[in-house]
Amino acid sequence: MNWQASFSILGYPGVMSYIGKGVVFTLVLSVLAVVISILLGSVLALCRNYCTGKSRIFRWISTVYIEIFRNTPLLLWIFICLVACPCPKFFARKMWGLTSVEMKILFRAVVALVLFESSIIAEIIRGGLNAIPKGQFEAAHTQGFSTVQTMSYIILPQAYRAVVPTLLSQVISTVKDSSYLANLACIELMSRVRKILATSNMFNGVGRQMVSDVFVLFGLAFVIYFVINFALSCAVRRMQRRGTTRKKQEAAL
């Protein structure tokens, strides 16, 4: 092992900027997946909890969706989306500095993450909905609120507030789960690190790949993932402490 030669890879022109773009795309993938998953998960949670009578078919659909995706591995859906997911023409073109092939992969990567994460987030939100007393529904209806207004202004805000720490924990999991997309030859962080490692003999000045190259490059990926997720973990703990303090203050009153 030649540690000096391996660390020189990071100083090679263009390597760090290439990895930096991977970090940006990892964050973009994660944010898109989380935002869309929260929206879809909210709809699924509402359907599973409150669609009864003539609309119970939506309850069945949401239940089947949640149970299928929640109880199967993400990697399976990544491969399925890579092979079978159609890509709209709008995304199948060169833009944002990516080739048309990379844009197709990016679209399918987001779809795979959303399918999986939305099923988990739906159950998280449903837990928040179940914690809300039924009396609040009755009180809202007596005040003249429609069902949509009751959900939008009273029920969902409380449910979100109750599950914010858990949702943030799921955001952390989503960032980590994005590393699976390296199996798609995607443009996120882990994929770029693997590509550099595959050609490390061109950058280390030795002319051959070394074990120390693996430690240096994957060590860099470890540090980046740790910094991102540790920052999110600190935010989760802070919100949990704030929520505990608020509950104690309310109990004291």
In short:
The chain is mostly helical and 253 residues long. It has helices spanning 3-7, 15-50, 56-70, 74-84, 100-130, 135-142, 147-177, 189-198, 211-252.
Write a concise keyword list for the protein shown above.
253 residues, mainly alpha, MetI-like fold, 9 helices, 0% strand, elongated
Oligomeric state of the chains present here: single chain
Q: Could you tell me how far the N terminus lies from the C terminus, measured between alpha carbons in angstroms?
A: 65 Å
Helix segment tally: 9
CATH architecture of the domain at 17-193: Orthogonal Bundle
Order of helices and strands: HHHHHHHHH
Fraction of residues in β-strands: under 5%
Could you please say which CATH topology of the domain at 17-193 applies here? MetI-like fold
Structural class assignment: mainly alpha
Mean pLDDT across every amino acid position? 80
- Count of β-strands: 0
* Bulk shape: elongated
Q: pLDDT under 50 segments (min length 5)? A: none
* CATH class term of the domain at 17-193: Mainly Alpha
- Assign a percent range to the helix content: over 70%
The CATH superfamily of the domain at 17-193 is known as MetI-like
Main sheet specs: none
Rg over CA atoms, rounded to whole Å, is: 23 Å
Account of the 3D structure:
This protein has 253 residues and is an all-alpha fold. It has a domain at 17-193: MetI-like fold. Helix content is 75%, strand content 0%. The protein has helices at 3-7, 15-50, 56-70, 74-84, 100-130, 135-142, 147-177, 189-198, 211-252. Helix 3 crosses helix 5 (100-130), helix 5 crosses helix 7 and helix 6 crosses helix 7.
